[in-house]
Automatic annotation (TrEMBL):
GO MF terms held by the record: ligase activity
Biological role stated in the UniProt entry: ATP-dependent carboxylate-amine ligase which exhibits weak glutamate--cysteine ligase activity.
Name of the featured protein: Putative glutamate--cysteine ligase 2
Organism: Pseudonocardia acidicola
Xref: InterPro entries: GCL_type2/YbdK_subfam, GCS2, Gln_synth/guanido_kin_cat_dom, YbdK
Catalytic activity line of the entry: L-cysteine + L-glutamate + ATP = gamma-L-glutamyl-L-cysteine + ADP + phosphate + H(+)
Similarity remark: Belongs to the glutamate--cysteine ligase type 2 family. YbdK subfamily.
């Protein structure tokens, strides 16, 4: 049987290899990439000039996706080195930084409206796109995956430091991101008409600038026939990004196949689940969907795999997902590695250097 294609967008920091601090050279890196006829990767700028975004092509298999992620990272890193910086997969900068707004009328308007939220928003996420055949399928998926998005955040946690300080969170990016007025979990939409009515109500409030600022945890893509799941940190290890993408695709497929609406859960509870996932990652307890009681992260993630098992089996992904999940549970997430390096080396610059080394 055919499987839904999946693609991944990843955001990265551009780091000075000596100081370990982000540098505002995103425009220069993009010009290098555009001048290189051999570069296949789609590179784009972001809100701040200290970062860059890559995107894979839509992929059918996890092997293909893994190759695409590594190729995109390698080509972006080569372009970055051409202007004297390193590309690093860290969801926040361990060292203190004052971000530099990218030159854009839209970004200037965002700064005027949202102030310090824009000035401090130097974070890097991982966005997974899963193909759907219609808006009806897409909304069914959005409504069905809601309970399981927090465990995906926990799996990807890779931002324990903020402005030179240990944040106490495995994913402090999720805390920073939550300051946007349209960010986070949402109520079920019920239908494409319900989704559109929600979008129109938000736009009609004149709070966000445009539809591009609908920062739901998951949304219908404006540009592609996909649902776009946006909860994850950029992953230090590309294998973790493959795992997040595989589980995301299986969640979408499982939701679309389901008979009837998903079990109800209030958005307030989902916010609690997201907070706990960002706080402890996979090193503590998460809220278990359905019971909404705390349980060890490994147990909750095991329930997630059980929930989507038929979809994983049909895609041929079950074995790979089990291997990748076992690996991250053994070694920890990017947040675990960052904290370990700080304990061993005693300085945050070593954390950045370790990320550069891969």
């Amino acid at each position: 049987m055919s499987v839904r294609t999946v693609g991944v967008e990843e955001e990265f920091l551009l780091i000075d290899p000596v100081s370990g601090r982000p540098r505002a050279v995103g425009g220069a890196v993009l010009r290098i990439a555009e001048a290189d006829d051999g570069t296949e990767t789609e590179l784009t700028g972001e809100l701040h000039r200290e970062q860059l975004e890559t995107a894979t092509v839509p992929c059918n298999s996890l092997d293909e996706l893994g190759r695409e992620l590594r190729r995109a990272r390698a080509e972006a890193a080569e372009a970055a080195r051409a202007v004297g910086v390193e590309l690093v997969a860290l969801a926040t900068s361990p060292l203190a930084v004052e971000p530099t707004l990218s030159p854009s009328v839209r970004y200037r308007e965002m700064r005027e409206r949202f102030g310090l939220t824009v000035d401090e928003e130097l974070t890097c996420g991982c966005h997974v796109h899963v193909a759907v055949d219609s808006d009806a399928e897409g909304v069914t998926a959005l409504d069905g995956i809601r309970p399981w998005l927090a465990p995906l955040l926990a799996l990807s946690a890779n931002s324990p430091f903020w402005q030179g300080t240990a944040s106490g969170y495995a994913s402090f990016r999720s805390q920073v991101w939550s300051r946007w007025p349209s960010a986070g979990p949402n109520e079920p939409f019920g239908s494409p008409a319900g989704y559109r009515a929600t979008v129109e109500a938000i736009l009609g409030s004149n709070t966000v600038l445009d539809e591009g600022m609908l920062y739901f945890d998951a949304r219908l893509s404006r540009l592609h026939p996909t649902v776009e799941i946006r909860v994850a940190d950029v992953c230090l290890d590309p294998d973790d990004a493959v795992l997040v993408a595989a589980l995301t695709r299986a969640l979408v497929e499982t939701a679309i196949r389901a008979d009837g609406p998903p079990p109800p859960v209030r958005t307030e509870v989902l916010r609690l689940a997201s907070w706990r996932a960002g706080r402890s990652g996979i090193d503590g307890e998460l809220l278990a969907p359905r019971t909404w009681r705390p349980a060890p992260a490994a147990e909750v993630l095991g329930r997630l795999v059980d929930h989507v098992r038929p979809a994983l089996e049909d895609a041929g992904d079950l074995g790979t997902v089990r291997e990748l999940l076992d690996a991250v549970l053994r070694r920890g997430t990017g947040a675990t590695r960052q904290r370990t390096v700080l304990t061993q080396k005693g300085e945050l610059r070593a954390v950045v250097a370790d990320a550069v080394a891969g």
